[in-house]
Amino acid sequence: MTPAARIATAAELLDEVLEGAAAEKVLTSWARRSRFAGSKDRAAVRDHVFDALRCLRSFAALGGAMTGRGLMIGMARSTETDPETIFTGEGHGAAALSDAERAAGQPPVSDAEAGDMPEWLWPHLTRALADEAAAVAEVLRHRAPVYIRVNTSLISADALARELAAEGILTTPGPLVATALEVTEGARRLASTIAFGEGRFEMQDAASQAICAAIPVQDGHSVLDYCAGGGGKTLALGARATLHLTAHDVAPERMRDLPVRARRAGIDVHLAERGELAGLAPFDVVLCDVPCSGSGAWRRAPEGKWRLTEDRLEQLLGIQAQILDEAASLVAAGGLLAYATCSLFEAENGDQIAAFLARNPGWQVETTRRLTPLDGGDGFFLACLRRI
Ligand SMILES: C[S@@+](CC[C@H](N)C(=O)[O-])C[C@H]1O[C@@H](n2cnc3c(N)ncnc32)[C@H](O)[C@@H]1O
């Protein structure tokens, strides 16, 4: 495919996403029916689609329309590429620009539009981040670095870096935490390496690793990961100490890969149904990595920025409060409740903790940590609460 044909394809796929289809599904189904597209074509089309989703408002403003074609015209203008050189109407490329398209388009007007945020979320962002809001929004307009977590119970970071380099995968030490390596070349091949198959590393964002490293666990602790999902944090905790580790999720199918991943990492985890938890309690440490807006990770999952609504945020706040209350009942006297989100918003972070403390006497905040993408990884919040 020519570069122009890739852009024409991305424009068509973006129209489907704008109508409500999930980007991953749209891309997978296009790749299935387009056998002529090689791996470089698929990667380029994917990058265009996700770049446009990260920069939806500013590209639409510059391109003059919230359509796939408008977004691609805006993308060209954002890099000072003349869209006439792409939209030529030749070959499999997109149709030539019309006079109306030539005349349309203007630079973003508001801070939210320039920062590629929905207007209603800008006050949430500025409340949480004050004068860093614009810089954080800017980082979220760009692709995320790829990080892996070294399973230091099996190998050192240096030794893993050398092993991966021998397979042509290049890394540098990552930010925030010694277990993080940033993958600078060959990321698409990570999952097929021997080191991955033998549990010497996992794909995990650096901030997510830093949050796990900040939860005080010790050999012998009984630890419950109450919202385990795929189990990224369960495994990160299990690699730090010899724990009696239990994983739970309201949607147990999300944990289906966890037993295999735990086995290859050399970690024992018990997967518990909800009905079992009271019998296994009390736990020394309960982690609640709650469902949230995901705003700290919007450079990885940019559709979330545009799909989140005020109603959905309200609903999430209710779920988070309920999880905190349920999980608190499972913590031993003197034990720890760790509340984590990958959100940047105070409503899901500090406000949620303040409201929990108001509802539940007998707890005190031991530590809190707020990370933003300016720290190198995703945005994350952690509050460690001690039962007194
Ligand atoms: C942010 S994700 C967890 C990600 C996971 N900790 C990781 O690091 O890979 C939140 C998880 O909470 C689960 N969840 C939602 N409501 C829940 C509830 N009431 N009790 C337990 N888990 C819940 C969701 O199914 C989802 O898997």
TrEMBL record:
User: What GO annotations for molecular function exist for this entry?
Assistant: RNA binding; RNA methyltransferase activity
Q: Which residues bind S-adenosyl-L-methionine?
A: 249, 289
Q: Which Gene3D superfamilies does the record cross-reference, listed alphabetically?
A: Sun protein, domain 3, Vaccinia Virus protein VP39
User: Transmembrane stretches, by residue range?
Assistant: none
Q: Which UniProt keywords apply?
A: Methyltransferase, RNA-binding, S-adenosyl-L-methionine, Transferase
Active-site residues per Swiss-Prot or TrEMBL entry: 342 (nucleophile)
Any GO BP? RNA methylation
Q: Which InterPro entries match?
A: MeTrfase_RsmB-F_NOP2_cat, MeTrfase_RsmB-F_NOP2_dom, RCMT, RsmB-like_ferredoxin, SAM-dependent_MTases_sf
Asked whether the keyword S-adenosyl-L-methionine is assigned, the reply is yes
- Similarity field: Belongs to the class I-like SAM-binding methyltransferase superfamily. RsmB/NOP family.
PANTHER family with a match to the protein in the record:
NOP2 YEAST -RELATED NOL1/NOP2/FMU SUN DOMAIN-CONTAINING, RIBOSOMAL RNA SMALL SUBUNIT METHYLTRANSFERASE B-RELATED
- Write down what this protein is called: RsmB/NOP family class I SAM-dependent RNA methyltransferase
**Species of origin:** Pseudooceanicola sediminis
